[in-house]
């Protein structure tokens, strides 16, 4: 078997806004090509600090960050940024065009996509995020959730091989979140090398990831499969995080004397089991 290709490596990263307290404390992890990794943690656990360090907006006190084997330093920052798609928490900071269509076009123009192909790409991604009817609208007049869909379309249209979502769906309602998740899943199916690091509050999204990283008080307290985290109260309870709906159901059934067999491991298999 071929060794996995590491796209992001974070080594012993620490950062403190104040001298006596670290917001991020000796955190190490890596993300391999084709993986879908979710980084979760309670408010104040250090997620945004880590996101800012990964984007080169803060410089670490200690530790190193490598993208594609290159250290994230002043020399490499722009070439690295050009290779990753980033969807930020606050969509207001990422609009440049005067219409939704211009905005989705912006990255494509920078990437020298031929004018002929551009219209089709813009229309198809606007459609994917449910914003077809708004292509001529001014981004400023959209709702928060609509703005975020446009920002996501703009990044996805670039077809980056590595996307970092920084609380990107926090503004959307559950339905909107589900639509974006479905779209990303479809893109991953079409391109198995598409790599995702999602910094998120959404435990349902984290539960669907290949791997989760859990931050608590600036420290990494778990790294591994979601079920080994959410399925183990000793590990997840101290982090103050909620539990995905599946585990709540599982506990409720157990309280009624119904123990689920091990092959029932998510909502789909639970639905099937209960309908049998
Ligand atoms: N600009 C700042 N100045 C001082 N402390 C900060 C600042 N931003 C965040 N912090 C502190 O750093 C810690 C981590 O915060 P943050 O990275 O925003 O966590 P999260 O995104 O997980 O909610 C918290 O204790 C927070 O109070
Ligand atoms: Mg945050």
SS element count, helices: 11
The ordered string of helix (H) and strand (E) elements is: EEEHEEHEHHHEHEHEEHHHH
Ligand list: adenosine-5'-diphosphate, magnesium ion
Find the count of extended strands (DSSP E, 2+ residues): 10
Query: Outline, from the CA principal axes?
Result: globular
The major β-sheet equals: 6 strands, mixed
Average of the residue pLDDT scores: 89
Strand-residue fraction? Answer: 15-25%
**Spatial strand order of the main sheet:** 6-7-8-3-9-10
What is the terminal-to-terminal distance? 39 Å
Radius of gyration: 20 Å
Q: Helix fraction?
A: 25-40%
Class computed from helices, strands and strand pairing? alpha/beta
> Low-confidence runs (pLDDT<50, min 5 residues)?
none
Structure description:
Helix 3 (100-110) packs across helix 4 (115-128) and helix 4 (115-128) packs across helix 5 (144-157). The protein has helices at 47-54, 77-81, 100-110, 115-128, 144-157, 174-190, 203-208, 226-230, 233-236, 245-255, 267-275; strands spanning 6-15, 24-32, 36-41, 62-67, 70-71, 84-87, 162-166, 195-199, 211-216, 219-224. The chain is an alpha/beta fold. The relative contact order is 0.14. It binds adenosine-5'-diphosphate and magnesium ion. Magnesium ion binds at residues 47-48. Residues 17, 23, 41, 43-49 line the site of adenosine-5'-diphosphate.
């Amino acid at each position: 078997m071929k060794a996995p290709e590491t796209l992001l490596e974070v080594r012993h990263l620490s950062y403190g806004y104040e001298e006596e307290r670290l917001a991020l404390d000796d955190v190490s992890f890596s993300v391999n090509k084709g993986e879908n990794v979710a980084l979760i943690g309670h408010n104040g656990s250090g997620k945004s600090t880590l996101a800012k360090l990964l984007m080169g907006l803060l410089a670490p006190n200690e530790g190193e960050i490598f993208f594609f084997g290159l250290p994230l330093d002043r020399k490499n920052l722009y070439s690295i940024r050009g290779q990753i798609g980033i969807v930020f928490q606050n969509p207001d900071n990422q609009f440049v065009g005067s219409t939704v269509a211009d905005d989705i076009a912006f990255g494509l123009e920078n990437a020298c996509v031929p004018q002929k192909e551009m219209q089709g790409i813009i229309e198809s991604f606007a459609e994917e995020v449910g914003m077809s009817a708004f292509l001529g609208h001014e981004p400023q007049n959209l709702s928060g959730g609509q703005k975020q869909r446009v920002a996501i379309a703009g990044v996805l249209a670039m077809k980056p091989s590595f996307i970092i979502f920084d609380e990107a769906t926090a503004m959307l309602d559950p339905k909107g979140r589900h639509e974006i998740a479905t779209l990303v899943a479809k893109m991953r199916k079409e391109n198995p090398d598409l790599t995702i690091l999602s910094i998120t509050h959404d435990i349902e999204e984290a539960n669907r990831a290949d791997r989760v990283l859990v931050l608590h008080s600036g420290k990494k307290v778990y790294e591994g499969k979601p079920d080994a985290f959410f399925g183990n109260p000793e590990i997840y309870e101290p982090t103050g995080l909620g539990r995905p709906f599946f585990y709540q159901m599982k506990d409720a059934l157990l309280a009624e004397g119904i123990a689920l067999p091990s092959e029932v491991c998510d909502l789909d298999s639970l639905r099937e089991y209960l309908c049998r």
